[in-house]
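Risk register update: the risk of archive-format incompatibility is retired. Evidence:
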Amino acid sequence: MRERLALPTGILLLAVLAPWPALAIDPVWSNWRGLALRGHDPVAYFDEARALPGSADHSLEWKGATWRFSSAERLERFRAEPGRYAPQYGGYCAYAVASGSTASVDPEAWRIVDGKLYLNYSRSIQAEWDKDVPGYIRRADESWPRLLAD
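Archived output:
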């Protein structure tokens, strides 16, 4: 009986795990709940220089994720120019992408550089990223197309 279960279990395990590499590099922009930036307002990073929670009352669907905003005016600004406000690298950690992989982010660990929003996994990772921002951005810009293609 044990040998008969091993094959279907192994096949099931492969079927479940096989899609993970593709999912890990798709720029889905969201966490497992489907919220981009864990529900934080992307426009607020630019307007107020802080991570500001958005509201379900001001939300829209874009690129397979629900984006929340702190006001209707910010929602409309994003709707008009989503590429201006959306984080780089599909919303993944800029440090991880520079290292050739992906990682989730902490909405409180962020920087705007040359008008673009970059997120990091944590504040401690951000401190490391801050040591060579131009170098990490250059490496991430080179790495990101390869991650998407893999």
